[in-house]
Amino acid sequence: MAEHGICAKCYGKDMSTGKLVNIGEAVGVIAAQSIGEPGTQLTLRTFHTGGIKITGEDITLGLPRVEQLFEVRKPKKQAVISEINGTVEDIIKENNNRNKVVISPETSIEGLSNSEEKKKIYHIPPELRLIVEKGQKISAGEKLTVGFIDPHEILKIQGIKAVQEYLLKEIQAVYRSQGVNINDKHIEAIIRQIARLNMVYVRSARDSELLSGELVYVSDFEKANLKVVEENKEIVEKNKELLENRRTISPLVSDKTGEVIVE
Predict the structure, then answer these.
(1) What are the residues facing 104 on neighbouring strands?
(2) Are residues 189 and 203 in the same domain?
(3) Considering only CA atoms, which of 186, 164, 182, 178 is closest in space to residue 61?
(4) Which helix (H) or strand (E) holds 169?
(5) 51 in the same domain as 95
(6) Which of 31, 66, 233, 243 is the most exposed place for a label (fewest CB within 10 A)?
C-alpha cells in the first residue's frame, strides 16, 4: 500500500491501454474527467416514485444527488437507521403520531442477563414511513424508515470501509439510472480524497514529533508510533471517537477536485 497517493497494483490497469498503470500517472485527474464528462448526461430533476409523494419525501436523482454525495451533506429527509444487529421486538403507536421502534440486540448465552439494558428505542417522526415490521431481523446501519442515510451516521456505527462502500454504491446508482457506466476505480479515487478517511486525529502526541490536536495521515501516524516504540518512548494516542469530536468527512471545495477542508 502506498503511503501517499494510490498504489499502482491497487489501482490496476490503465483503462486506455489495458496495461498496469504507470507510476506517477495522474489517476485523480483521469477520475475527475471520467466522472465529470458523463455528468452532463445526468438529468437535473426531482421526482416522486410512481407519481406519488411518499410521506413528504422527494426522491432526488441526477446531479443534485451526486453533489449531495460528493459533498457528503446531510440529507434533508434523513432515514433513521439501526445502531445494532438484532430483531424488531415491537412497534408502538404513540399519541403524537410517532412510532416507537424497539430493537432487541443479538445476544449470546452470557449476554442474556443484560440484554434488556442494550435494547435500542427509536422514536420515529410521523413524516417518516416505517419500512420494517415486528419480528424482522435487522443489521447495524440498516434503514428503519424511508429517506437517505447520513454518511456520518454510517461512519459512527459501521466504520470507514462502510462509508466508502456506501458512497460508491449510491453514486453508481445515480449514474446507472441514467444509463451511464463508470468504472468503480474512478469513483473510489475521488472518494479517497474527499472523505479523508485515511487520516486520524492525534489526541495525545506524547514523545512523538506529531502535535496533539492535528489531523495526520494513517501512514504518518503509524511511522511516528514505530519510531517512538523503537526509542522506548510513549506511543501516540489517536482519538477513537473521531466523529463525536470533529467532522471527519470533509466536503469538496468548489470545483477543485481533490482539494478539501477539515472543519
Answers:
(1) 87
(2) no
(3) 178
(4) helix 160-177
(5) no
(6) 233
Asked if the structure places residue 79 within a domain, the reply is no
Instruction: Classify residue 23: in a domain, yes or no.
Output: yes
Task: Please report, for the domain that includes residue 141, its CATH number.
Answer: 2.40.50.100
What is the rounded distance in angstroms from the CA atom of residue 167 to the CA atom of residue 170?
5
Q: What is the pLDDT of residues 5-56, one digit of tens each?
A: 788 888 888 888 889 999 989 898 899 888 888 877 776 554 444 444 444 4
Place of cell 475527475: 32
Q: Which residues contact 220 (CB under 8 A, 6 or more apart)?
A: 3, 210
CB contact set of 37 (below 8 Å; sequence gap of 6+) = none
Cell triple for residue 263? 472543519
Rounded CA-CA distance 115/119 in Å is 7
Amino acid of residue 86: G
CA distance 5 to 198: 11
Please measure the distance between the N-terminal and C-terminal CA atoms of the chain and give it in whole angstroms.
28
Count of domains in the chain?
A: 3
Q: Which of 133, 130, 135 is nearest to 79 (CA)?
A: 130
Question: Domain span at residue 21?
Answer: 1-74+154-197
Average pLDDT over residues 176-203: 83
Backbone angles phi, psi at 4, to 5 degrees: -130, 150
How is residue 240 written as a grid cell?
477513537
> What is the value of pTM for the model shown?
0.71
- The confidence band for 253, taking pLDDT boundaries of 50, 70 and 90, is very low
Q: Residue 18 CB: number of other CB atoms within 10 A?
A: 7
Residue 27 sits in a domain whose CATH number is 1.10.1790
Is residue 81 included in any domain, yes or no? no
> What's the Rg (C-alpha) of the chain?
22
* pLDDT bucket at 233, cuts 50 / 70 / 90: low
Specify the higher pLDDT residue, 201 or 102.
Answer: 102
